[in-house]
Design brief:
Order of helices and strands of chain B: HEHEHEHEHHEHEHEHEH
Structural class of chain B: alpha/beta
Number of helices of chain A: 5
CATH superfamily of the largest domain in chain B: Nitrogenase molybdenum iron protein domain
Helix content of chain A: 10-25%
CATH class of the largest domain in chain B: Alpha Beta
Number of strands of chain B: 8
CATH architecture of the largest domain in chain B: 3-Layer(aba) Sandwich
Number of strands of chain A: 17
Oligomer: heterodimer
Largest sheet of chain B: 4 strands, parallel
Strand content of chain A: 35-45%
CATH topology of the largest domain in chain B: Rossmann fold
CATH class of chain A: Mainly Beta
Number of domains of chain B: 2
Largest interface: A-B, 72 and 75 residues
CATH superfamily of chain A: Porin
Distance between the termini of chain B: 75 Å
CATH architecture of chain A: Beta Barrel
Shape of chain B: globular
Number of domains of chain A: 1
Shape of chain A: elongated
Order of helices and strands of chain A: HHHEHEEEEHEEEEEEEEEEEE
Radius of gyration of chain A: 36 Å
Distance between the termini of chain A: 118 Å
Strand order of the largest sheet of chain A: 1-2-3-4-5-6-7-8-9-10-11-13-14-15-16-17
Radius of gyration of chain B: 22 Å
């Protein structure tokens, strides 16, 4: 009877509990489904995180550069870390012919520097200049920036690309936009200023540079306009090589002597495209350049650089023009200073040139009364400047120019005091005043008629900025 | 006869000199950018190396004037050791002017001592020049922390072994001996700075972060508002107020920075000014690095007491 009652009670409880149990199962099923979805979602998220971290680890492991961590690790144990000695590329550091012939990994440098980095450096330089001068100078186009008197204009907006081409060579390209004055009109021009490669692994302490480049002639010709110590280049360089200076296509070979003091020798072979000085523009009659440069430390704080240069080529008239140069530069930098206190420099140029002189019609009968002949135009020019920089941001200096005209008779001199202000390393302003006097009217621009612009007074101003990478300038 | 005797005597006197120069010629010629690395290279290379540094201890290594006299040193170098992390960017111009293919980037004689260093203050956001002369690869002043010496000497050892593999065992022995001496010194330095652990300090330029972090000190500010740019009056006023509020005990400055300004800040804030050897190993010798570090830490411990 007791068993019967128990069975009845169980049956009754099951019969009443059955709908509730069914409801619980449904709810549990829903929860389970929800949890399953959440789990799947979390799984996906974790998988994505793991994938991202794995990718990051892979990237970091591929870098030789150290891994960034917020705090330094505890002092490393003094026991030596395992030494991994890499085999040198070749004995003595010179690549063998076999190595040179071997195909190279084009992206090896990319891998060395890690992802997210460019293969080369990019920099932009903006150099704006302006001047204010007399009306007659403007009318005669006889100012420092011929044809752009009383204007503020972009002299050089440079895009610089430079870096390693491969383990054996470096490359450098400069594309330049500037306001030019040509053919009687001003226009904004874009042109290739420089593009060259430097072979770094040549034997016997030599290096070769090939391409279009600013020639290493004297002190300032090799500098870009924005790197000049004054707003304009010295008059003698303008007279002998033109406003753009000597920039040629060809090759240079340098050798640094293995001596206790610095001695660099350079020889170069170029087309001779410079129209002011040469203009033949052919390797059959090339422009040959040479330079010797030496350097001495004078005590702990002084330094002196001496140089001698030569450039010899053929003019459009098929005559030889040889320009000789000598230069010196001295800097005094007190110990611990980031800038020199005093800089003095100078350069002397001498031109040995033959020109055609056509016969003159003295009596006006249309027939030349004097014979055509050739004459020499041996000309001298020089400049010196001194600069004092008592504070890091301010420098004061003066340049003195004296030069004969490259072809015309006569000479001119100029004095140019200036002040330079650097708000930072990458921004510079400069203000100067230039007084020029010529002893004839055929001054300054090789233009015969420059009105009454024999005496010129100009206020020069310059604003220069550097964006991105900018290579360090040597001494 | 007298002339002959004079010649023989001169030759006899000159022989040791010639011998000496021959010995010098046999040595591995190493050029480093900074004196810290010179000292560490001497510790590893011992008598087998002749080391020269391009930057003098009193010069700021950030912006060195590239003189041809530096190129002469590189011209004759077998090994070139640089700090890396953009501290000595100018070194590439020196190397290019030296016409020495052994030490160009990627050459067997080139060592980047920063390889493997756990770099601090690596920017995690975009950086530009509005932040001053920032180092995009992180703080490059790791050599001032003696705890980094094991890593740096490993890199130097690898470089030396590449150019003179026959002496690798000697280099390894030298390095182990140096690190043993360094470890002994390190225990002393840790003890010396233990009582002032957590002390707050200010630096002129942010070049001591590795050192202060190593010994548990806290750098609360820099005199330079932004790296490489002189501070504004507003920044100095805020800094002095902060130093007073936080009880900063010391302000550290390197020899080439504005010590007059630093002294004024120290005076107004009540902190002590400490001129540290920001370039270690000014003197030669295998333990110059330890001696310079010791001088720095002794001065630091005294100032923070």
């Amino acid at each position: 009877m007791r068993a019967f009652l128990a069975v009845c009670l169980l049956a009754a409880s099951i019969s009443t509990a059955a709908p509730a149990g069914a409801q619980d199962v449904e709810s549990l099923k829903k929860e389970l489904e929800q949890m399953r979805k959440q789990f799947e979602s979390m799984k996906d998220q974790y998988q994505k995180s793991i994938d991202a971290m794995a990718e990051r680890v892979k990237r970091l492991e591929s870098r030789p550069e150290p891994v960034a961590t917020p705090v330094p690790v505890a002092p490393a144990p003094p026991t030596p870390a395992p030494v991994v000695t890499q085999a040198p590329p070749s004995s003595g550091g010179q690549p063998s012919l076999l190595e040179l012939a071997r195909p190279r990994q084009p992206f090896s440098l990319y891998e060395r520097r890690g992802p997210g980095q460019l293969l080369f450096d990019i920099g932009v330089v903006g150099d704006f200049v302006g001047n204010i001068t007399q009306n007659n100078v403007e009318q005669g186009k006889g100012g420092t920036f011929a044809g752009r008197e009383n204007r503020f204009f972009p002299r050089e907006i440079e895009l610089n690309l430079f870096g390693q081409i491969d383990p054996y060579a470096r490359g450098e390209v400069r594309i330049e936009a500037a306001e030019e004055f040509e053919g009687g009109e001003r226009k904004l021009e874009l042109h290739l200023a420089e593009a060259h490669l430097t072979l770094l692994t040549l034997p016997f302490g030599t290096q070769a540079r090939l391409g279009k480049l600013r020639n290493r002639f004297g002190l300032l010709n090799q500098l870009h306009r924005e790197a000049l110590p004054q707003t304009d280049q010295p008059d003698v360089l303008t007279q002998f090589f033109g406003e753009e200076g000597l920039t040629e296509s060809g090759g240079e070979l340098t050798w640094v002597a293995p001596l206790p003091f610095y001695l660099e020798a350079l020889v170069g072979l170029f087309n001779g495209d410079n129209e002011t000085a040469f203009g033949r523009g052919s390797l059959r009659n090339p422009l040959v350049t040479g330079r010797l440069r030496t350097f001495f430390e004078l005590g702990d704080f002084g330094a002196l650089q001496l140089g001698a240069s030569v450039a010899s080529g053929i003019t459009e008239e098929d005559h030889r023009n040889t320009v000789l140069g000598a230069d010196l530069k001295y800097k005094y930098r007190p110990d611990g200073w980031a800038h020199p206190l005093f800089t003095a420099a100078g350069e002397f140029l001498y031109q040995l040139r033959t020109v055609n002189v056509f016969g003159e019609d003295l009596d006006g009968d249309g027939i030349a009364d004097t014979p055509d002949e050739t004459r020499t135009r041996n000309r001298l020019g020089w400049y010196v400047y001194g600069e004092v920089q008592p504070w890091r941001r301010w420098a004061f200096g003066t340049r003195y120019d004296w030069t004969e005209y490259a072809l015309a008779r006569g000479h001119q001199w100029a004095v140019e005091p200036y002040v330079t202000f650097w708000p930072s390393e990458f921004l510079r302003f400069r203000l100067g005043y230039k007084h020029t006097e010529g002893n004839t009217r055929g001054c300054c621009t090789n233009v015969a008629d420059v009105g009454s612009a024999r005496i010129k007074d100009e206020f020069l101003f310059q604003a220069t900025f550097f964006l991105g990478a900018h290579p360090t300038h040597p001494f | 006869m007298r002339t002959l005797i004079q010649i023989l005597a001169t030759a006899a006197l000159a022989l040791p000199l010639l011998q000496g120069s021959a010995n010098a010629a046999d040595k591995i010629r190493v050029v480093t950018t900074i004196t810290d690395l010179k000292s560490l290279t001497e510790a590893v290379g011992g008598d087998l190396v002749e080391v020269d540094a391009l930057v003098r201890p009193s010069q700021n290594p950030h912006d060195l004037e590239v003189r041809p006299s530096l190129m002469v040193k590189v011209r004759r170098a077998d090994l070139f050791v640089m700090n890396g992390l953009d501290l000595d960017q100018w070194a590439e111009v020196v190397v290019q002017g030296g016409n020495n293919s052994k030490v160009i980037a990627g050459g067997p004689g080139r060592v980047d001592a920063s390889r493997g260093i756990p770099v601090l203050e690596v920017p995690t956001t975009r950086v530009d020049r509005s932040m001053g002369d920032v180092h995009p690869f992180g703080n490059p002043h790791y050599t001032l922390d003696p705890g980094m010496a094991p890593i740096v000497t490993t890199n130097i050892l690898e470089g030396l072994a590449r150019v003179a593999p026959q002496h690798q065992a000697t280099f390894e022995r030298n390095r182990q001996a140096f690190l043993a001496r360094l470890e002994a010194a390190m225990s002393g330095w840790t003890r010396a700075l233990e009582p002032v652990k957590g002390a707050k300090l200010v630096v002129y330029h942010n070049n001591l972060i590795y050192l202060v972090t190593r010994f548990g000190l806290v750098q609360v500010g820099t005199v330079e508002d932004r790296p490489g740019i002189p501070p504004s009056p507003g920044h100095l006023t805020r800094l002095i107020r902060q130093m007073k509020e936080e009880g900063v005990k010391a302000i550290l400055v390197e020899p080439w920075s504005d010590q007059t300004l630093t002294a004024r800040i120290a005076q107004e804030s009540g902190a002590k000014m400490v001129v540290l050897n920001a370039k270690l190993g000014a003197t030669s010798g295998p333990d110059a690095y330890i001696a310079s570090t010791n001088a720095n830490i002794t001065a630091l411990a005294q100032a923070l007491r």
